[in-house]
Amino acid sequence: MDGGMTGAVYLENKGFCPCCRKETTFRSESDWLRDNYICLQCNSIPRNRHLHYVLDTKFPGWEKAKIHECSPVNDFTARFASHWSRSVFEPNVRPGSMHNGVRCENIEAMTFADNTFDIFITEDVLEHVFHPDKAIAEIMRVLRPGGAHVFTVPKQKWITHSRQCAKLVDGEIEHILEPQYHIAANGGGSLVTWEYGYDFELLLSEWAGNVPVETHRMLDRSKGIDAEFNEVFAIRKPDTGGGHRWLPRKLKPFWF
Ligand SMILES: [Zn+2]
Q1: H or E segment to which residue 23 belongs
Q2: Which pLDDT tens digit goes with each residue over 88-144?
Q3: What's the 144 CA to ligand 1 centre distance in angstroms?
Q4: CATH placement of domain 46-236
């Protein structure tokens, strides 16, 4: 998923960036906005900004919540959050242990206790895991009641039924469809294991234990939010009491 770079400006406008919270200029030198429509102040791309806009508007006060981010490639959340942690997957490192200063976790079988986080963030992760059903169930387990998984995934309009593209058989990758790779944080290729389509929310809802999936869709260039497959999804863990409660920003949160 990489557009042709021409060097010419395809799109440029001024606005306010939800990631760096500054007046800025948004610019793209490609018609593929998803990876190229950047904030000139912080280099964020549209999905980063849309996710932050959803945090700001749907989860006011998120900066003080206990947040975990799986495989983040930027510090847009970390720079404003007071209780933030992250983890990455390293195939040969024991889950729960540290590697090069970063906690390693397998999102399909995490070592965190139940009811640990208020917000769990994944950006373009679920199309690269072999068992997204297990990942979603795990995220629901580690969220506190009333907490939320806020995430991005490319949902493709021309696919009616989400489909698995590759699976693990005795530890070996078996390709079901022609292999596709997205550019990973380290510059390498990250294998696409699932392609998601029209039924995405239904599937995720089922995996989360019949919890509704919210879909946020927006096109607002004044916030740099315009791109293909730029939806932000949220799944709220049912609030059975004792968990986090989200209040409108104008009300002073009393639990911190
Ligand atoms: Zn910015």
Answers
A1: strand 22-28
A2: 999 889 999 999 999 999 999 999 999 999 999 999 999 999 999 999 999 999 999
A3: 30
A4: 3.40.50.150
The structural domains of the chain, with segments of one domain joined by +, span 46-236
- 58 Cα to the center of ligand 1, angstroms: 20
Phi, psi of 44 (to 5 degrees): -65, 155
User: What digits encode the pLDDT tens for the residues 138-185?
Assistant: 999 999 999 999 999 999 988 999 999 999 999 899 999 999 998 876
- As a whole number of angstroms, the distance between CA 244 and CA 63 comes to 13
**Three-state DSSP class for residue 172:** strand
Residue 50, CA distances (Å) to 18, 89, 91, 213 in order: 8, 25, 31, 17
Distance 179 CA to ligand 1 centre (A): 33
Q: Residue 35 C-alpha to ligand 1 middle, in angstroms?
A: 14
> Percent of the chain, pLDDT > 70?
91
Cα–Cα distances in angstroms (integers) from residue 95 to residues 87, 89, 160, in the given order:
10, 8, 35
CA of 135 to the centre of ligand 1 (A): 30
CA 73 to ligand 1 centroid distance, Å: 15
67 within 8 A of 85, measured Cβ to Cβ: yes
CA of 2 to the centre of ligand 1 (A): 21
Strand, helix or coil at 186? coil
